[in-house]
């Protein structure tokens, strides 16, 4: 297995620069793994594609406005921070931009507090300590941490949040969920399809490409996730009733399969809360996710490797080529796939 096995060429005009309106007007490519069939729909038709005893599993994490700009003290040199996770009170792991951002440097955040660079964590990662609590200020002084391939300004930051986002903690959105509207959620439930929540706070690996020649040598960073009691119950009930567990997004898949890996049950799943370093590559045996709703992912990324494990590498790359021929939009603000 080579990282280059997961490469494909995507002309830049296919990269969605803004979200569609309404959210559920995005397109949906449906691939049936058992029958090998492909169908083209719009996301608002999802309710017609689901069965009454299905269970949708959504990640209710909320993106924090974690991108901060500032100037080095006393030189005034430009500095940028992307907060990834709080390590302890007022101390964060962050990606930094700017020249010479090393331990001992102090930065004045624009309209915010002073921050000290405490430790070098490797690469662009630093441990930073704020003079005053930063989290209460983020909605006022922080910026939405949009992916680097999005170059257009986002007028409404809420468009980079799912409609069901509740618990703040992510450095990026679980983008497969961006297609849902409140009305679509209601229609799904009216059909008898249940919805269960998990939480995975998205961190560094969203921004960390695979550089190793063999992806099995890639070190995936830990993220915190939770699968609560009530979700475990719903999953086990769905399985007993012969229904399908449909994971909305790769983060939901990672949470489900992390919980399964920790579960003592031979059948079913137990609640789980803690860190996960699960890296899903082809050959992985999925224990919980029966279907996956997901967007189109970057070449040579851990997320493309995960969906390749679910569907087959050659088939996924074939579907991506078909999507380009059909004019689908790619990446965070792009269209979606339902892999059944």
Task: Please characterize this protein's 3D structure.
The chain has 340 residues and is α/β, with parallel strands linked by helices. Helices cover 19% and strands 29% of the residues. The protein has helices at 46-49, 138-141, 182-190, 229-240, 250-262, 302-311, 313-325, and strands at residues 27-32, 37-42, 55-59, 61-63, 67-73, 78-88, 91-97, 106-109, 114-122, 125-130, 167-170, 194-200, 223-227, 245-248, 272-276, 291-295, 336-339. The strands form three sheets. A nine-stranded mixed beta sheet has the order 2-1-17-16-14-3-12-13-15, covered by helices on one side. Strands 5-6-7-10-9-8 form a six-stranded antiparallel barrel. A two-stranded parallel ribbon has the order 4-11. Helix 6 (302-311) packs across helix 7 (313-325). It is globular, with a radius of gyration of 20 Å. The relative contact order is 0.20.
In short:
By secondary structure, the chain is α/β, with parallel strands linked by helices.
Q: What's the arrangement of strands in the largest beta sheet?
A: 2-1-17-16-14-3-12-13-15
* Low confidence ranges: none
How many alpha or pi helices? Answer: 7
Q: Could you give the count of β-strands?
A: 17
Q: Tell me the CATH topology of the largest domain.
A: QueA-like
Mean pLDDT level = 94
Q: Helix- and strand-based class?
A: alpha/beta
The level 1 CATH classification of the largest domain is: Alpha Beta
Strand percentage, roughly?
Answer: 25-35%
- Amino- and carboxy-terminal Cα gap: 25 Å
